[in-house]
Design a protein that fits this description.
By secondary structure, this protein is of the alpha/beta class. It has helices spanning 36-49, 64-71, 88-92, 98-108, 129-137, 167-170, 187-192, and strands at 26-31, 55-59, 76-80, 113-117, 141-143, 146-150, 174-176, 180-184.
Length: 196
């Protein structure tokens, strides 16, 4: 069985993240044909509020005309997702979202940090200083969007038999979404989050 380590996606060197360099990021997203329309609105919001920021858009199954349209957008570079070394369940079963971690690792080999945005995200402003500061504080990782549900309400009770935890605390802990996040190629990020 192939592991992520066998794909050699770890960065050649790690970033020392500071307040001075936290804003050196590239915006990354990806969409299949069924999420293309909503991704257009997301890209428009990035271009409005972060006009100087490069955007990398992964083609997760766009039609030819959709891919052609993406290529025409300012400051957007289109990349086809898929590597023959990746297991087929990663490239064929997008609802498992395994592609997202592989894309993040691919990007962090090239750039010191990224802002991942799902197609459904809309930026409502340009001040991300608190998020950048939190990413520095967390040594390279910040989940920006918070879910509306508490973890407890959407977790099957039998799961707690296998994952001992403080259930009372989970009743007041909100889900954190993975649709809007800052990730940097720090040693801490790769050893604690992307290590597999």
């Amino acid at each position: 069985m192939k592991t992520v380590q066998s794909l050699h996606l770890e960065p050649k060197s790690y970033t020392t993240l500071t307040a001075a360099n936290a804003e050196r990021i590239v915006v990354v997203t990806g969409a299949s044909s069924n999420h293309f329309v909503e991704s257009k609105a997301m890209i428009k919001s990035v271009q409005k509020y972060m006009p100087d920021r490069p955007i990398i858009y992964y083609d997760l199954g766009l039609t030819k005309s959709q891919a052609s349209e993406v290529r025409s957008w300012c400051s957007v570079k289109l990349r086809k997702f898929g590597n023959s070394a990746y297991p087929t369940y990663v490239t064929k079963h997008l609802r498992c979202y395994a592609f997202k971690l592989l894309i993040i690792q691919e990007i962090l080999r090239e750039f010191p940090g990224l802002m991942w945005l799902d197609a459904s995200v809309r930026l409502l402003g340009s001040n991300f200083s608190a998020a950048f500061a939190k990413a520095v504080e967390n040594d390279g990782f910040e989940m920006i969007n918070k879910g509306i549900n508490e973890i407890f309400t959407v977790t099957h009770p039998a799961l707690y038999e296998f994952l001992p935890t403080n259930v009372q605390r989970l009743k007041h802990t909100h889900i954190i979404g993975a649709g809007f996040m800052l990730i940097y190629n720090t040693y801490a990020t790769f050893s604690n989050i992307l290590r597999w």
